[in-house]
Structure formats: C-alpha cells, structure tokens
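Hello again, I could really use a second opinion on something today. For a while now I've been wondering how a particular protein folds. Please have a think about how the structure follows from the sequence. Here's the protein in full, and shout if anything looks odd to you:

***
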Amino acid sequence: MERVVRIGAFVRVRENFAGLVPIYELAERDPEAPESVLRNGDEVMVEVLGINLHRRRILLSLRS
C-alpha cells in the first residue's frame, strides 16, 4: 500500500507501477473512510479490474 486518500487507496503493483483501489472497491459495503479498511504500508492482494494505457491508469479491487 502506498497511500490512502479520500477517494480510495493507491497500491504498488510492481516497482514503478501503482494502481487505484477506489473506495467502492475496498469492501463489500462502502466504508465511511478508506482509513477504516486500510493503512499506509499494509500488504494486500488485489484484482486488476482494468488498465487504461492511454491515461496510464490501473483500476484495482480488494473485493474479489
């Protein structure tokens, strides 16, 4: 886990590659705040939901 922000959490997938786990993909029920589910430095298993090469974005989920 790189950092928790208001909209979700940024997770390092590989060196120099990070993706976003949006708040709605953090848990089965939408949490009030991302910090209630994750903290900076946590290790997590994520599923890749999508990759946008043009915008250089990776969408991730913890729910699966």
About this structure: The beta strands are 3-5, 8-14, 17-22, 47-52, 57-61. The chain has a mean pLDDT of 87. DSSP finds no helices and five strands in the chain.
